[in-house]
């Protein structure tokens, strides 16, 4: 079987872990679909669980219009009755899987006090407690966070944050880390791996190392609402609780965005219900993907612009010390697939800052000035300063 396009989705084999997981999955898939539109001819690795978990952590600290916007965009609220327990059970269920590690982290400025309620819900839902960090030493803070990510991704993502990504205005960094290492239930024989041409989305063809396996697979053929034919084949990992689904359109000219736009938890459940065990010869590339995505634009397009606006964001459930907003949300993912199995690591971060906490204002850039009589409002002098004048 020649795969002209390959879409990869790592998913739990068990169906129906609950409505919360379905909604988190739907949100993550929607984010991926929007990212994929901007990467039409590029390979992309992404963690839907990572971004859903991270924004759920932010949602627990949100109030007012920010909370409502997050609830609307994500399709669920962890602030509703019983949802903290569901989140804890979901994370515990995943963490029990052999070869799978999930961690959540909160790095907080050491001089800022967190609301007791936020500490409580983070502990209850995500089994995490805040780590105090001195953000007045940004490079040191970057090193601390990178060490945390490296520890929780088995060293797969050693330099998550670049130096310069944090400043002394940073107040809080929310983190999610995911590491997976799984062996195929039936490994591919390396002696059967051959160099073959892979037909890329941009129309070019490049040689790849194509792995081959003839075996019984769960397989199905499906049609999108627009009449695009595609097939789904499942490759199980040892233990059968995790598997990889390979989804590929029949026609080589069909872009993967046509398929990713239809992705949902319900669609995946439909696939699983209709797959049939048949004998197939599978050939697909051995590959490694490294992706880094900035999620800010996508999230703004999903209606979450206010949380990036210091004047509009409401994270008063996190702290009442000062006003917070999100400055960046990004994710790094590394996936390696070979004859033995799969290694995957993902790290997602939301960086929050506050300008109200700055004790010193340095006008080391052009500025306007006005001299005004306060009682009458008369402006006596004004000007703009762009550069020093020669004396």
UniProtKB/TrEMBL annotation:
<dbReference type="GO" id="GO:0005615">
    <property type="term" value="C:extracellular space"/>
</dbReference>
<dbReference type="GO" id="GO:0010757">
    <property type="term" value="P:negative regulation of plasminogen activation"/>
</dbReference>
<comment type="similarity">
    <text>Belongs to the serpin family.</text>
</comment>
<dbReference type="GO" id="GO:0061044">
    <property type="term" value="P:negative regulation of vascular wound healing"/>
</dbReference>
<dbReference type="GO" id="GO:0004867">
    <property type="term" value="F:serine-type endopeptidase inhibitor activity"/>
</dbReference>
<keyword id="KW-0646">Protease inhibitor</keyword>
<keyword id="KW-0722">Serine protease inhibitor</keyword>
<feature type="signal peptide">
    <location>
        <begin position="1"/>
        <end position="18"/>
    </location>
</feature>
<dbReference type="InterPro" id="IPR036186">
    <property type="entry name" value="Serpin_sf"/>
</dbReference>
<comment type="subunit">
    <text>Forms a heterodimer with TMPRSS7. Interacts with VTN. Binds LRP1B; binding is followed by internalization and degradation. Interacts with PPP1CB. In complex with PLAU/uPA, interacts with PLAUR/uPAR. Interacts with SORL1 and LRP1, either alone or in complex with PLAU; these interactions are abolished in the presence of LRPAP1/RAP. The ternary complex composed of PLAUR-PLAU-PAI1 also interacts with SORL1. Interacts with PLAT/tPA. Also interacts with SORL1, when complexed to PLAT/tPA.</text>
</comment>
<dbReference type="InterPro" id="IPR023796">
    <property type="entry name" value="Serpin_dom"/>
</dbReference>
<dbReference type="InterPro" id="IPR042178">
    <property type="entry name" value="Serpin_sf_1"/>
</dbReference>
<protein>
    <recommendedName>
        <fullName>Plasminogen activator inhibitor 1</fullName>
    </recommendedName>
</protein>
<dbReference type="InterPro" id="IPR000215">
    <property type="entry name" value="Serpin_fam"/>
</dbReference>
<dbReference type="Pfam" id="PF00079">
    <property type="entry name" value="Serpin"/>
</dbReference>
<keyword id="KW-0732">Signal</keyword>
<dbReference type="InterPro" id="IPR042185">
    <property type="entry name" value="Serpin_sf_2"/>
</dbReference>
<dbReference type="InterPro" id="IPR023795">
    <property type="entry name" value="Serpin_CS"/>
</dbReference>
<feature type="domain" description="Serpin">
    <location>
        <begin position="29"/>
        <end position="388"/>
    </location>
</feature>
């Amino acid at each position: 079987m020649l795969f002209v396009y390959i879409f990869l989705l790592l998913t739990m084999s068990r169906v129906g872990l609950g409505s919360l997981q379905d909604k988190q999955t739907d949100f993550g898939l929607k984010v991926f679909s929007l990212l994929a539109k901007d990467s039409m001819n590029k390979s992309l690795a992404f963690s839907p669980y990572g971004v859903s978990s991270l924004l759920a952590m932010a949602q627990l600290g949100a109030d007012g219009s920010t909370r409502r916007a997050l609830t609307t965009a994500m399709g669920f609220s962890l602030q509703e009755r019983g949802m903290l327990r569901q989140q804890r059970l979901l994370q515990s269920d995943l963490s029990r899987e052999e070869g799978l590690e999930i961690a959540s982290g909160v790095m907080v400025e050491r001089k800022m006090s967190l609301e007791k309620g936020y500490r409580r819900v983070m502990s209850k839902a995500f089994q995490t407690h805040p780590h105090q960090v001195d953000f007045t030493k940004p490079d040191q803070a970057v090193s601390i966070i990178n060490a945390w990510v490296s520890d929780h991704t088995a060293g797969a993502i050693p330099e998550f944050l670049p130096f310069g990504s944090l400043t002394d205005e940073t107040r809080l960094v929310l983190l999610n880390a995911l590491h997976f290492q799984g062996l195929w239930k039936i490994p591919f024989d390396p002696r059967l791996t051959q160099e073959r041409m892979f037909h890329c989305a941009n129309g070019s063809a490049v040689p790849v190392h194509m792995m081959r396996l003839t075996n019984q697979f769960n397989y199905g053929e499906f049609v999108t609402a627009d009449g695009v034919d595609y097939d789904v084949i499942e490759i199980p990992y040892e233990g059968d609780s995790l598997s990889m689904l390979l989804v590929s359109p029949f026609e080589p000219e069909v872009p993967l965005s046509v398929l990713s736009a239809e992705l949902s938890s319900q669609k995946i459940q439909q696939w699983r219900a209709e797959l049939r065990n048949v004998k197939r010869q599978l050939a697909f590339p051995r590959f490694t993907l490294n992706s880094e995505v900035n999620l800010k634009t996508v999230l703004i397009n999903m209606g979450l612009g206010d949380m990036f606006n210091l004047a509009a964001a409401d994270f008063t459930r996190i702290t009442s010390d000062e006003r917070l907003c999100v400055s960046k949300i990004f994710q790094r993912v590394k996936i390696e697939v070979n004859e033995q199995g799969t290694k995957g690591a993902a790290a997602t971060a939301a960086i929050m800052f506050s300008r109200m906490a700055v004790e010193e204002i340095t006008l080391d850039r052009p500025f306007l000035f006005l001299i005004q009589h306060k009682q009458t409002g008369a402006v006596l002098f004004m000007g703009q300063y762009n550069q020093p004048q020669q004396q």
